[in-house]
Design brief:
heterodimer; A: 495 residues; alpha/beta; Aspartate Aminotransferase, domain 2; Aspartate Aminotransferase, domain 1; 3 domains; seven-stranded mixed beta sheet; three-stranded antiparallel beta sheet; 10 strands; B: 125 residues; alpha+beta; OB fold (Dihydrolipoamide Acetyltransferase, E2P); six-stranded antiparallel beta sheet; 4 helices; globular
Chain lengths: 495, 125
């Protein structure tokens, strides 16, 4: 792999441009003002810039005209990098080749559902009528987009057993906060103001207690039993008139289905609380089991996980929130409007659902579950398996069986040498050397076998050459970063 | 095998207490720092804050995880080790030297619930 670490402004040379602005005569013919570029991009020169670009700030201001308040006019030109089109293309192509994604190779990052993103999603999202939408367009010009939102609302309601969804939240954690605010609103509307506590299991995603804290609620932790499931007896002791609700992901972060969920729902509802479903682990249940039927009142879905939209590197994500009849009156934000979070992502997820259809969507979870159990059973003689039962879409090892001083971090780093992305490590916190593997349904048997072979090889290397693992990775553009110094003395700006 | 210092009292959540008259000097055990890995940040209460036995009074963050600090005794914070703000690694270097806070105890009988070094060996050996 070619090492490349330039920043775009390091390539900048004064006067070089990679765009052409329309001539004043063209501007009048463009429907949406003066900023659209011409259809043809030219490799620019300084003279082109003089001919076509704004000569100075005042021209830009004049062009913006009376529609923009003068208070927000820029006083100096933007300090943008000046680069030609080929500089830009090479820069981003080189950067992209330093990256690892689902399109590059196997990415078994537990709890993240890094499934393949079918390219038909991109084709649909690229249809000009969708791709060119502007949030401020008049409603009558975006009926097709509304139809997508209404259709998606129905599809998600059918898949989850919820009544309706809002598409405003742009991420899973954003959805959690939205859902908890709905939960609080529900209790407040009944004058039930003492409900300030939210129960989360000790295996919960870290976002659950974080969202509850941001929402101003107190967190109570319910312990798991030896078998990794919520301890119902312990839960009983926590319930009371101060409980707003419980946040659960099912299957939980150990990949285990909470079999007592009906009883948990009865208990929590019995004390006046609500159930929140963290949809991060929805993938294995697709088309098979519905959170609404399990008794959940509020939930979010991570479209960038379960519904195959692009994921990682900061998104964009989408965390639609669904509610039951009971909570629906509090979803008083417009469920359909011009501003719908990341509409392009909702559209991609809708394309995925329609592509699979009611019948085939059930296969996603089955194959995801099969893949996870296949890897688990194939490696449990080399890696410590703390909970041996059948898993759903993911499972957790607790380090090597015969570790010889080799840690989970060493194993994860060594995997990079063999061209695989590392699994999630050191989460959940129940185990000290956790390796959380989620293969998803989109990987072939050959890929799963290749991963298993490498994991076995690393276990062998741990016995014969632990130093090799302590120093890994050896084949990547960057070796092992000094995470400690990075955390203790972070360098946060370009120097 | 982690070190366990003699003459200190220990909690189940791996804090140690050195008793100096009415003052409890509190830190975390060598076992705790080894489990945490390189510590990158220590969150401490302010002087004059009240802490309660069994409730958290701060947190440790390391490269791989974060963990709450649980007060082994109740009382008023009379000192905090500000050196840890810039040098959290002192806890990794010597967990028994790098105290975190000093607490003027409101109920010395709470010390009876803590373990001595021999008993602590059983859970952090």
């Amino acid at each position: 792999m070619k090492y490349y670490d330039k920043l775009i402004f390091e390539l900048s040379k004064p006067g070089r441009i990679g765009f052409s602005l329309p001539r004043p005569a063209d501007r009048q013919q463009l429907p949406f003002g003066n900023t659209a570029t011409l259809g043809t991009l030219r490799g620019g020169t300084a003279s082109e810039a003089q001919r076509w670009g704004p000569k100075d700030v005042s021209e830009g201001q004049a062009a913006a005209g009376s529609k923009v308040c003068s208070k927000v006019w820029r006083e100096a030109p933007l300090d943008l990098p000046e680069v030609s089109e080929v500089d830009v293309v090479r820069h981003y192509t080189n950067l992209s080749q330093m990256n690892f994604g689902v399109d590059t190779g196997f990415y078994p990052l537990g709890s993240c559902t890094m499934k393949y993103n079918p390219k038909i999603n991109e084709e649909i999202a690229g249809i000009p009528g969708f791709a060119g939408l502007h949030p401020l367009q008049p409603n009558e010009t975006v009926k097709g987009a509304f139809e997508v939102l209404v259709g998606m609302d129905k599809a998600l309601a059918a898949i989850t057993g919820m009544k309706h969804f809002t598409f405003l939240p742009c991420a899973g954690a954003h959805g959690e906060l939205t859902g908890l605010m709905l939960m609080r609103e529900y209790h407040m509307s009944r004058g039930d103001t003492a409900r300030t506590k939210v129960i989360v299991p000790d295996s919960a995603h870290g976002t659950n207690p974080a969202s509850a804290a941001v929402c101003g609620l107190d967190i109570v932790v319910v312990k798991s039993k030896e078998d990794g499931l919520v301890d119902v007896e312990a839960l009983k002791g926590l319930l009371g008139p101060d409980i707003a609700g419980i946040m659960l992901t099912n299957p939980n972060t150990l990949g285990l289905f909470e079999r007592d969920i009906k009883q948990i729902a009865e208990l929590v509802h019995g004390c006046g609380g609500l159930l929140y479903y963290d949809g991060a682990n929805m993938n294995p249940l697709l088309g098979m089991v519905r959170p609404g039927d399990m008794g959940f009142d509020i939930m979010h879905l991570n479209l960038h996980k379960t519904f195959s939209t692009p994921h990682g590197g900061g998104g964009p994500g989408a965390g639609p929130v669904g509610v039951s009849d009971k909570v629906l009156p509090f979803l008083h934000i417009p469920r359909v409007s011009g501003f719908h979070g990341n509409f392009g992502i909702i559209l991609r997820a809708y394309a995925y659902i329609l592509m699979l259809g009611r019948e085939h969507i059930k296969l996603a979870g089955k194959f995801a579950t099969l893949s996870a159990n296949y890897i688990k059973e194939s490696l449990k003689d080399c890696y410590k398996l703390p909970i041996p039962s059948v898993c759903k879409h993911e499972f957790v090892f607790d380090g090597l069986l015969d570790d010889n001083g080799v840690t989970t971090l060493d194993v994860a780093k060594r995997l990079l040498d063999y061209g695989f992305h590392a699994p999630t490590i050191y989460f959940p916190l129940l185990f000290h050397q956790a390796i959380m593997i989620e293969p998803t349904e989109t990987e072939s048997l050959e890929t799963l076998d290749a991963f298993i072979a490498v994991m076995r090889k690393i276990a062998e290397e741990a016995k014969t050459d632990p130093e090799l693992l302590h120093g890994a990775p050896h084949n990547t553009p960057i070796g092992r970063p000094d995470e400690t110094t990075a955390a203790r003395q972070p360098v946060l700006k370009y120097e | 095998m982690s070190k366990i210092a003699e003459g200190l009292l220990y909690s189940e959540s791996h804090e140690w207490v050195r008793v100096d008259g009415n003052v409890a000097i509190i830190g975390v055990s060598d076992f705790a720092q080894a489990e945490m890995g390189d510590i990158t940040y220590v969150e401490m209460p302010d002087v004059d804050d009240e802490v309660s036995a069994g409730e958290d009074f701060g947190a440790l963050e390391s490269v791989k995880t974060s963990s709450e600090l649980v007060a082994p005794v109740s009382g008023r914070v009379v000192a905090r080790n500000d050196e840890l703000e810039d040098k959290p690694e002192l806890i990794n270097e010597d967990a028994y030297e790098a105290w975190i806070i000093k607490v003027e105890m409101s109920d010395k009988s709470e010390l009876d619930k803590l373990m001595n070094a021999a008993a602590y060996t059983n859970i952090a050996g």
